[in-house]
Amino acid sequence: MVEAAEEVTEGAEVAAGAVGGPVLYFVTSTTTRHGRALADPEARVAFTVQRDGQEWSALTGIQGRGRCRPLSGAERDVGWRAYARRFPFVEADERLRAALERTTLWALRPDWLRLIDNGQGFGHKEEWSRMEGA
Which of helix, strand or coil describes residue 54? Predict the structure, then answer.
């Protein structure tokens, strides 16, 4: 489950990366193979997001690259609020909420995104890159 951050402008929200570009929040344990790989400070990640079952002629999705890191303290609180807003069923289920609260919350900050929208013509793409130092 992934959540894109809403724009916020105060204290920990800025530190958590919710200002200055897109941020995706997700949960996974640092004890998994991919969790250990993600925890490497030099790790780069790539991802694709698309809805299942789309016809190729109307396919839309996003490809991206960036870095991610585990969150703690006030940054985790900010990320968790964004995550819970996007997935309210997590907060509604006490067992699920408790399980996810014990798991590591991550922030993925893309530095490159590509929107693919075949609805505008086969292979239609739009790209975005984060400016150096931003």
Answer: coil
Q: CA geometry: angle at 69 spanning 66 and 74, to 5°?
A: 130
DSSP three-state, residue 82? helix
What confidence tens digit (pLDDT) does each residue in 79-102 have?
999 999 999 999 999 999 999 988
Cβ-contact 20, 109 below 8 angstroms = no
List Cβ neighbours of 50 (8 Å cut-off, separation of 6 or more): 59, 60, 61, 62
HSE value, Cβ hemisphere, 13 Å, CA-based, for 84? 15
pLDDT at 134: 54
What's the token pair of residue 35? 């969790």
Contact residues for 24 (Cβ-Cβ < 8 A; gap 6+): 2, 3, 4, 5, 47, 107, 108, 110
pTM for this entry: 0.73
| Partners of residue 25 on adjacent β-strands | 3, 107
